[in-house]
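hey so u asked for the seq, here:
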Amino acid sequence: MLEKLARWNRSAGFWLSLIILCFALEAAALVYQYVFYYDPCVLCVHIRAWILGILIAAIAGLFLRKHRLGLLIANLLVLLFSAGFVERAYQTLGTEMGFVTGACSMNPHYPSFLPLHQWLPSVFEPLTSCGYTPWVIPQVLSMAQTLMAISVTLFILMLLMLVSSLRYPDHQL
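ran it, structure tokens below
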């Protein structure tokens, strides 16, 4: 199985699929914001930022996938950004379900060298407080639950991809 994952990791199809997933997630967020009028909270815009990081790393992975070091760096970056995605999704779900408490400010606290809320406020500026997320499937699956499932799945997949790349370097495939 790891050998097949290592081959898939080196394919353009894998990296293009990851890029498409990121675009789909960002587009869905904007549809919920601008079509269904659900303003994003600070946790939501943080998730958007982590997905943007995954997108940039996936684009790098598409171009670097044939070089072992480039592939490892791309895998590590996507894994790192996926971990941030998992943490923010967990905070969002915990806030919604009540098992995480804490203040949710309107200040996104992006690093000074990366003020996404100033560069692109229509995407990265929080407009409401945390607590409620809309339904993805009415009365069945909330946005927070969906994000948690996607983030954990992506994290596990990228961990397996990293392990497969280390276990089966390109000269053995």
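The chain has a mean pLDDT of 93. The two ends are 13 Å apart (CA to CA).
lmk if thats what u needed
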